[in-house]
Description:
By secondary structure, the protein is of the alpha/beta class. The protein folds into 3 domains: 1-41, no CATH class; 42-82 and 146-347, TIM Barrel; 88-144, Alpha-Beta Plaits. The protein is built from 12 helices and 13 strands. The strands form 3 sheets. It has a 9-stranded mixed sheet with strand order 7-1-2-8-9-10-11-12-13. A hairpin with a 3-residue loop joins β4 and β5. 37% of the residues are buried. Mean pLDDT is 89; it is low at 21-40.
Amino acid sequence: MKIIIKKLLTFQFLYALYFDYVKTINKSANNKGFGRGVLFMKKTAQVFNIQRYSLHDGPGIRTLVFFKGCPLKCAWCANPEGLHRTNEVRYITQKCNSCANCQQACPQDAITAIAGAGFAIDRAKCVSCGACATKCYRKAKMLSGYEIDFTELMGKILKDKAYFESSGGGVTLGGGDPLMQGEFAQELLTLCHSEGIKTAIETTAFCSFETYRNCALLCDTVFTDFKAFDEQKHLALTGVSNKKIMDNIKQLDKVLLEQASGAEFIIRIPLLPEINFSLSDMQEATDFLKSLSSVKYIEILPFHNLGESKYQQLGMEYQFEGKDNLKSSDVKEYADILGRAGLTVKVTDW
């Protein structure tokens, strides 16, 4: 315990010094007419979960930091509470005992008693202030999202440093998409590396290339999603074109190769056969994927419905209601296409 406290105090001291240094550099850069400084510390981030002792999303034992906000709105997203940057109230009806505390606490009059359905939230009136959640002692209503600063977040991360070192693990930034809060993500990755902690990001790559590159070069593992090869399918299923994403992937591939960063570059394909990829789409995608020299392997993620209940809790529509989870056998034809093209492929079963 004494050692942990000593490390935390040391980190807080170094953080204070580093923050002063950043302010000095920023001031100097501004004085020289560069606008915002060369270094800019975004002191807080909006997150919705910090998951410790995870065995997924990178090697070893990991701490996953889930950032709020995503530029894509994927119809199958397993973490819909991460889609929007703002806080949201989740309502888990199974936990409600109809005490009415939430209704009495709501300043917007956005909660209504419904026979047999508990206390429903009028999403048009709700401003996600969290007043209802603070009075819900059974946690039927919970606020998804909160603000956290570097000191608190690094304090949580450092608690597990011994596990990282013994297992080859580290910290993974996910979400949502952490690169929507790129300044904070970059500084956090820098601080983790200064502590000898291995890092990873999970991103859509729908951002400026500068943000993508800067964060990727601070990582030991870079997971990038490839949602669909056909642009119209990508647009229909995610709300955005895939042109920027594919261009960023190609540019990062060159940078990683030129700089020999040693980062493991992994392309992930969440797969819903005949929805985001047809067999012909996958065949065409092989030319693009084969052109990438720095990619370690392609990871296929068969569709799962593990986030379905969250949509109801958030008052959102789920397009794949009732659709069964897929297994590796369901996507074998797709994996075989990539394999025959000489690509290394892994299929992750849920």
